[in-house]
Each structure stands twice: as C-alpha cells, then as structure tokens.
Backbone:
C-alpha cells in the first residue's frame, strides 16, 4: 500500500472519529432537553430537618423516648426469609410506641413513621433537638447464609472512642450549643472537650443501665444472644448527651426469628419487655 494512501486512510479515520464525538455531544445536549436528565431541587442551605410529633402527655417534664426504626426508603437494610429490615424495624418501633403511650406518663416520638430515608446523623440529631431522655435505635441483624444464628443484642457506644469523639463534638458544638444544660459558649476548646467527654461518659453509663434492664426484663419474653450486651462505635449512638442504645432485635436471616419478630405476638412481647425496662429505668432516675 503506497505511503500517501496510508496517510489518507489514517486521516479519514481521525476525521470520522472526531465527527462521531461531536455528534454524540450534540445528541447529549438534545437529550438533556427531552427528559433524559433528572433534575431535582436541593434543600435550602441551613434548612433544619422536620422534627416528628411528640405523642403522650403534654407535660414537657415527662420523660421522652425517641424510637428510631432503622433504615428506610431506598435503604432496605438486611433481607431474609421474605422480610426487609426496614419494614420489620418499623413494626417493632410502632409496637413499642403504642405500648409506652398506653401505659401513660411517658412521651414518645418516632424518627420515622413511614418508609423514608434518614441519615444516621439526622436520627441522633432528632433525639437531641427534641430533648430526648432516651434514644433507642431498632435494627435486625443478619448472619448471611447461616440460618441458625439467632438472638437479640443491645449495643452501647464504645468507651474507647470517647476521647477523639469528645474533641470532634466539642469543635462542632463549641460556641453554638449546650451539653447537658451547660452552655459551651465562651469556653475554651479544651474545657469544651472535657465537658463533652464527661457528658458522654454519663450517657454511656445510663445507656448501659437501661441495656441491662432490657436483658433482665426480656428474660422469658425475648431470645437473646449468649453475649447480649456489647459496645461499638455506631454512628447513630454518637450523641454527646442522650443515653443511646442500638437494639439488634434478632436475626432476619433466621426464618423462625424473622417470622416471630414480624408477627403481632412477637412485636407485643418485644414491646412489653422494653416498656417495662424503660419504666424501671425512669423510676430509678427519678429516685436519684
């Protein structure tokens, strides 16, 4: 093949590719005006998330339990035995809310009462914004293909994460917020970090006390893991001043346990045990 012909051929290929790229760009622009590009409005900067309604007594001095049904919306959570975690946790949250309200004397709010998505930080900040006495996040665990693992587990915030977390929270909250009723405005970063760390320690201790009560009151009503109380650095538990628990109510990967937790009887047993533990916890708090 003559050299000149090869050069013409290469030039023709380059021109053809360039034309294809330009045509594709023009096509994309045309598509953008015909519904091929999804547009949505972003929330206004600084706009606060909507807070859920508080149900129960009108007296603000009454203790407030904020119940968080894990996952929701486009985040289904774990799945197994024809159940989705987001649906199962909402059923348990509603059952506990109804039980607490029926017993009287306690105010209750759900972070979500429908199938919506909330970020982890939003969930704990709802509890803080409402002035919660206790924050309980409900989940269902999964063991993958192992269908035999079962039992509920209660998690509190890991204490080893407190120092770094205290500094981080202090940096964010300083000059802008209150921790356990103490105004951080005007405090140094070092003093603020100490106040936050002390508040976190107190919240962890109180959450641990409630966790032990739930295990005790759940005996005979709920099936617990052999090690039912553990600690971990769950993001949803990182509130500096609200006793916070994450309750893995059972294993959705276990068909029998999933069906029990989804049943009216299973939800009633869950609500009964947790309701009793919460009431004992508040009675002790009042006594102190």
Residues:
């Amino acid at each position: 093949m003559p050299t000149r012909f090869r050069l013409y051929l290469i030039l023709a290929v380059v021109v053809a590719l360039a034309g294809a790229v330009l045509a594709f760009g023009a096509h994309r622009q045309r598509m953008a005006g015909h519904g091929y590009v999804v547009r949505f409005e972003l929330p206004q900067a600084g706009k606060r998330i909507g807070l859920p309604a508080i149900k129960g007594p009108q007296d603000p001095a009454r203790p407030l339990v904020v119940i968080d049904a894990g996952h929701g919306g486009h985040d289904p959570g774990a799945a197994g035995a024809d159940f989705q975690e987001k649906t199962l946790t909402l059923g348990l949250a509603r059952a506990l809310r109804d039980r607490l309200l029926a017993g009287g004397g306690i105010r209750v709010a759900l972070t979500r009462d429908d199938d919506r998505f909330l970020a982890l930080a939003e969930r704990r900040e709802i509890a803080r914004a409402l002035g919660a006495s206790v924050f309980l996040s409900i989940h269902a665990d999964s063991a993958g293909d192992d269908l035999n693992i079962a039992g509920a587990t209660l998690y509190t915030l890991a204490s080893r994460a407190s120092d770094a977390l205290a500094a981080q929270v202090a940096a964010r909250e300083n000059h802008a917020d209150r921790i356990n009723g103490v105004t951080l405005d005007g405090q140094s970063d070092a003093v603020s970090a100490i106040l936050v760390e002390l508040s976190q320690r107190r919240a962890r201790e109180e959450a641990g006390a409630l966790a032990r009560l739930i295990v005790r009151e759940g005996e005979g009503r709920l099936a617990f893991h052999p090690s039912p109380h553990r600690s971990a650095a769950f993001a949803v538990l990182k509130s500096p001043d609200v006793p916070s628990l994450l309750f893995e109510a059972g294993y959705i990967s276990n068909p029998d346990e999933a069906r029990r937790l989804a049943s009216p009887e299973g939800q009633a047993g869950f609500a009964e045990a947790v309701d009793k533990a919460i009431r004992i916890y508040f009675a002790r708090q009042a006594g102190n």
